[in-house]
Amino acid sequence: MEYRSISYMIVKFKPISDVSSDLTVQVGSSSFCLHKFPLVSRSGKIRKLLADPKISNICLPNAPGGSEAFELAAKFCYGIDIEINLLNIAKLRCASHYLEMTEDFSEDNLATKTEHFLKETIFPSISNSIVVLHHCETLIPVSEDINLVNRLIIAIANNACKEQLTSGLLKLDYTFSGTNIEPETPLDWWGKSLAILNLDFFQRVVSAVKSKGLRQDVISKILISYTNKSLQGLMVRDPKLEKDRVLDVECKKKQRLIVETIVRLLPTQGRRSSVPMAFLSSLLKMVIATSSSASSGSCRSDLERRIGLQLDQAILEDVLIPINPNGINSTMYDIDSILRIFSIFLNLDEDDDEEEQHHHRQFRDETEMIYDFDSPGSPKQSSILKVSKLMDNYLAEIAMDPNLTTSKFIALAELLPDHARIISDGLYRAVDIYLKVHPNIKDSERYRLCKTIDSQKLSQEACSHAAQNERLPVQMAVQVLYFEQIRLRNAMSSSIGPTQFLFSSNCHQFPQRSGSGAGSGAISPRDNYASVRRENRELKLEVARMRMRLTDLEKDHISIKQELVKSNPGTKLFKSFAKKISKLNSLFSFSSLKPSFSGKASSESRFLFQRKRRHSVS
Hints:
This protein is mostly helical. It is about 60% helix and about 5% strand. It contains 25 helices and four strands.
């Protein structure tokens, strides 16, 4: 046991400077040999404990601040000047309350001095208030009883919003004065210092600044900074070791508690949220990794909705969400979560359509004008195109998972409506990767996969690759060749002769060449004629290649037909198949290749393998 004596510190009490101590005070593991008179003169609590003059030993087991705070308070009782600073103000204020060192027992007592220091030095400063609030964490419940914690939180919120208002007024002054000077200090300069607070105090501070009207982008930065710092050191260790396994359980509990608290503190969700997509994705990954299948349901749903609302801002890394290692699924990524996220975005798009149609009708009634909300350059259409590209990249990534089922892949591929994809090259690439990684899937599943691809939206390069791709079913190859033939016919019918371009009055309809150094000048007839001749040569070469490819296909079809007939000539199924092959041969005959034909609609209606789409273009 540690014994301390501060009788040598007596300054004002000269008559008792040589008097031996008559009181022993036990504070925690420390003992102080003191005198009754100076303590009783300023402390109401000690006066009550020494009501019996015979008492010479007292114990203060719950003294806030421990022996250090009591030693400072005892010095004050002896009349010694003590230094009140940023580091000890919380202890002294709680100790003065605990020892009842108020004006009722002595003028200008310790409680009065500490209150004066708080009002003059601590409360006006955000950084000082945060430091003192951090020290209050070890002084619970006394710091709560004297309302010190709540006053510090209110002071932080008021000063933060005051700085925000001052910064806004400065920007207005700069705007009206014509200068471009910006305030050097960012509004969230104090947000990083909040990382020293425990989770409960941090939550109360953020809630307070939100209620006072602090900007959402500032709140988002504060949440990101606190999350990054508080999660450091809580990384998963080797689960094979028993000690690390126990530590991992505790770390995961802390991680889950931090993430769930941060999600509750996020600003109001919206289509244009101030919370970065990468941060939301990281929170969702953390929730999935640290929770069981039955816990954190509301937190996960909230994050999925937030990501879905601003899915057009996401990149591939944001949606590659690993599966929970403790779950029953064996896939690499959480497909169900992504299905819900994309569905939220698509449902939001449908809601926007209904709302825009309502406003559109009102606009027509009032002004009799029409505005195209679904034009290619509209923000909504561009968002859908971004999401479709994101989906195709995601499909190409998860296609390499050997445990991914065909039904899950098809569900994702068919989730987007037809108008979401202008070109289907990305989806074709993903399907080809899946077929390469999963070579043993059934023919029916292989056919269902290829039905998700719109062959009319494949580029010329993709068509050439698909026509020679042995992993695709023969129906897909024939379909690609058919639409490529239609495309060639349209191209040849549009280029009847070079004189049409030389003397046509509609030459401005053709795109101008960029990067020629002529700026926005018109194309000369000589260049136009040379371009047309070059295109005609390329078309002729392509037609020759197509003829060779079709000839090979016809030979293969004839040989297959002969083998089938020889093996079982009486079977009606083989006869029917032979008739269909003969129809295909006659259909793809190039003898009818002319500049004009009987229309695109009639040609497409003859195609045998017409796809059935889940969504219809409205």
